[in-house]
Amino acid sequence: MLDVNSPDSAHAAPPRELQAPEKVQAFVARRRAFFILLGVLVAQLLLLSAQITRDHKVRLIQVWAVAVFDPFARALRGTADAATAAWKSYRELWQAQQQNFELQMQLVAARSEIQQLTEQAAEARRLRDLLEFKNRLPFQTVAAEVIATSPGEASTVVFIDRGTDAGLTSDMAVITPAGIVGKTIAVFPHTAQVLLITDPASGAACTLERSRVQGILKGGTRSLCQVHYVMNETPVALGERVLTSGLDQIYPKGLPAGSVVQIAEGNIYKGVTVKPAAALDRLETVLVVFRPRSGDLQALTSPARP
Fold first, then answer.
1. Residues of the chain where predicted confidence (pLDDT) is lower than 70
2. 142-289 has which CATH code?
3. Between helices 60-136 and 32-51, what is the axis angle to 10°?
4. From CA 84, how far away is CA 80, in angstroms rounded?
5. What is the pLDDT of residues 211-235, one digit of tens each?
6. Considering only Cβ atoms within 10 Å of each terminal Cβ, which end of the chain, N or C, has fewer?
């Protein structure tokens, strides 16, 4: 017989609480008849909707199915269309960038080709002018390319690609169609060193074109030259041309040497500053004048013009 006052009865465990699945099972078990009836009604409804047709012989179940799934289909189609449009835009942008890059490369190549063609055309013009000038000269010359200059900002020495192999010797005049350049001072087998007229150690016999006064053209400062031994009373005008006189037996007579840019009175002689006729800082192709044989020296009948 169970003793209600015993310690075991006082500490009896409370009933166990049901878990959620067990609660669901208990709920379904208690209302089994209701759920069976609900299932039968849904089945009959589906059977009726499958048999009933509307306009155009469309079954009612199809109408319901479309009504239920159409929003999802529309959303999915919209997402797919947006993704397709984004991908198409990305591809078009990438292709445009590629085309832009290719066009830029073609533009750079075209500009480089135009620059090369321009340089070639300018070189062709220089060579044509040099050839025409060479053919007009009454003395023998040989063309040469300037290949180097001496270091320094005020360089007065250049090197050409002709030497003893071309018959060159020292003290041979170097000229361009624009005017005289200088003379050879050292000749090697395949090259030669040319001293420009702007060097103080150079010298060229010259004549003022209008007054016909003789002088010596020597290098000065700032890439200019000076005409020495021109008396103060001799009229000299700014811009007057200075020509070679041929008396130095190096430069043929009548070649342009430069033009007067400054005049200053001195004690006895004028200070006549001359700008060289040839662009000595942009020399590329020159002519070297061969010395005429003894008794065969010729002079130009008229000043040579570029």
1. 1-20, 24, 28, 44-70, 151-154, 292-306
2. 2.40.10.340
3. 60
4. 6
5. 899 999 999 877 899 999 999 998 9
6. N
